Amino acid sequence: MGFRPLHDRILVRRIKEEEKTAGGIIIPDTAKEKPSEGEIVAVGSGHRAEDGSVTPLDVKAGDRVLFSKYGGTEVTIDGEELLILRESDVLGIVEAKKSKSKTKKAA
Question: What's the CATH code, domain 9-16+32-94?
Answer without folding.
Answer: 2.30.33.40
